[in-house]
């Protein structure tokens, strides 16, 4: 099915970007390699990997060559094994490592800061951009 969708996407000039849920980065990489009919990539969201108990850094290293888009969100893992989105900089994502990996892997695509929960999503997005700029400047 993915081959069919990617073939059509290639025909119309679009790239399918798969959004992971609890899949491991290794499984996703395997799926990406099995698709041969058109471009396909991963919509990478570090919060998803935190909430599913996976290392964001390891996932980035595994998937770096198939990243189509990166969504900037943060999260914490709950005691019950689930997770919860939190403002960027207040969760378990190591943003210094994350930004370094973006540079190391030469990612030049879009980064979209998003906040899907909370009382002040727009303010959280603004603060996230400020925070990431501070982290990037050292």
What features would you describe in this structure?
With 138 residues, this protein is α/β, with parallel strands linked by helices. It has helices at 2-12, 25-34, 46-51, 56-63, 95-104, 121-137, and strands at 16-18, 40-44, 67-72, 74-77, 83-86, 111-113. It is 45% helix and 18% strand. It contains 6 helices and 6 strands. It is globular, with a radius of gyration of 16 Å. The mean pLDDT is 93. Strands 1-2-3-6 form a 4-stranded parallel β-sheet. The N and C termini lie far apart (45 Å). The longest helix has 17 residues, at 121-137.
Instruction: Name the beta content range.
Output: 15-25%
Estimate the mean pLDDT confidence: 93
**Tally of strands:** 6
- Helix tally? 6
Unreliable sequence segments = none
SSE succession: HEHEHHEEEHEH
Class derived from helix and strand content: alpha/beta
Helix content: 40-55%
* Termini Cα gap: 45 Å
Radius of gyration: 16 Å
- How would you write the strand order of the largest sheet? 1-2-3-6
- Shape field: globular
Largest sheet: 4 strands, parallel
């Amino acid at each position: 099915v993915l081959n069919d969708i990617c073939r059509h996407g290639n025909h119309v000039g679009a790239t399918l970007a798969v959004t992971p849920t609890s899949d491991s980065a290794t499984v996703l990489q395997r799926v990406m390699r099995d698709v041969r009919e058109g471009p396909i990539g991963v919509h990478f969201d570090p919060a998803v990997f935190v909430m599913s108990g996976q290392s964001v850094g390891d996932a980035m290293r595994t998937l770096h060559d198939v990243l189509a888009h990166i969504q900037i969100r943060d999260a914490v893992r709950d005691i019950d094994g689930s997770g919860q989105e939190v403002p960027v900089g207040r969760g378990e994502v190591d943003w210094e490592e994350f930004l370094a990996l973006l540079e190391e892997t030469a990612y030049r695509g879009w980064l979209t800061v998003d906040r899907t929960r909370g009382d002040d999503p727009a303010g959280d997005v603004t603060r996230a951009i400020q925070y990431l700029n501070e982290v990037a400047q050292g």
